[in-house]
Amino acid sequence: MNGSIQTLKTLIMEQCHNGHTLYSTCKTRVHNRCPTCRQGLGYIRCLALEKVAESLELPCKPYNCPYAGSECSVVGDIPQLVTHLKEDHKGDMHTRCTFNHRYVKSNPREVENATWMLTVFNCFGQYFCLHFEAFQLGMSPVYMAFLRYMGDDEDARNYSYSLEVGGNGRKLTWEGTPRSIRDSHKKVRDSHDGLIIQRNMAVFFSGGDRKELKLRVTGRIWKEQQNQESGVCIPIDCS
User: Fold this and answer.
1) Segment holding 8, helix H or strand E
2) pLDDT classification of 4: cutoffs 50, 70, 90
3) 134-158 burial, b if ≥16 CB within 10 A, otherwise e?
4) Residues with Cβ < 8 Å from 30, sequence gap 6 or more?
5) Which pTM was predicted?
6) The Seven-in-absentia protein TRAF-like domain covers which part of the protein (predicted)?
7) Which of 37, 56, 81, 170 is the most buried (most CB within 10 A)?
């Protein structure tokens, strides 16, 4: 009997009249006959085996380091990666769900050797990585901010975030769901899944003589919780 960790913990187990077990989703593959004794299958739950599967503490697939400034080969679980980001990459660590990120660059036309900026936030007992960087999009440099969740995609969907940048009486806003660090930094960036600021707009927001980039990106993270009575999702801010 093979299966992933999620399969073992969530799928229904059934058994034939002789006690042979299989996943309920496999019944059609064996034409509703037990693959061991070939007896016809009804619908007999194997609750004992389901309980055993639920109690298993199995190792999770390790995560890759989410730092984007270099090809880091470190892998590990979330606590290990948080320590790694703090000690080896000197990541900026915060325990809050709001952010106020300032990015200053002397020449807004340059994207070569752009500073990779990563800030880690601990809120709702989870960790999130805020990325901010410059890169070339077509013929023009752009600036991008996006959030990644340190965990799997199915858990990332429980959270939302917003980003805002502005100046001179104008502002851009972005709202979305953080991507899991299972998705590489490059994959998220290349999909443009975040707040993208064109160079001309970034310079306009910076004010002054338009020769220096001064961007302030603000935002927050919240949790989506469904109201059991109405079925409507309600945003929950961290305390």
Assistant:
1) helix 5-10
2) very low
3) beebeeebbbbbbbbbbbeeeebeb
4) 22, 41
5) 0.71
6) 121-218
7) 81
